[in-house]
């Protein structure tokens, strides 16, 4: 994973504990991020899962300084990026 990520986008479900952990971590690290809750948009969630070959939420995307989007993974991937023990 690259360290030139300037913001994050998290795709979540409301009752997802891992999603809540990822959001809390980004808040604690004072990172810029946006959240899209997909409880009412199963079609969009399925498209994202297919696009990124990822079957769980959260789906976390980083945006670099030059505007490129990088798929980062899920909550445990984000925790590893920030050196947080699980």
Task: Describe it.
The protein has 86 residues and is of the alpha+beta class. The chain has a single domain, classed as Glutaredoxin, CATH 3.40.30. 35% of the residues lie in helices and 28% in strands. The chain has helices at residues 17-28, 42-52, 75-81, and strands spanning 5-12, 33-37, 59-64, 69-73. The chain has a 4-stranded mixed sheet, sandwiched between helices. A hairpin with a 4-residue loop joins strand 3 and strand 4 (69-73). Helix 1 (17-28) packs parallel to helix 3. The chain is globular, with a radius of gyration of 12 Å. It starts with a strand and ends in a 5-residue tail after the last helix. The mean pLDDT is 94.
Topology of this protein?
Blueprint: E1 5-12, H1 17-28, E2 33-37, H2 42-52, E3 59-64, E4 69-73, H3 75-81
Helix pairs in contact: 1-3
Concise account of the structure shown:
With about 90 residues, the chain is an alpha+beta fold. It is about 35% helix and about 30% strand.
List keywords for this structure.
Glutaredoxin, 3 helices, four-stranded mixed β-sheet, 86 residues, alpha+beta
Query: What is the H-and-E element order?
Result: EHEHEEH
What assembly state would you assign to the polypeptide chains in this entry? single chain
Order of strands in the sheet with most strands: 2-1-3-4
The assigned structural class equals alpha+beta
- How many strand units? 4
The major β-sheet equals: 4 strands, mixed
**Total DSSP helices:** 3
Radius of gyration: 12 Å
The level of helicity is 25-40%
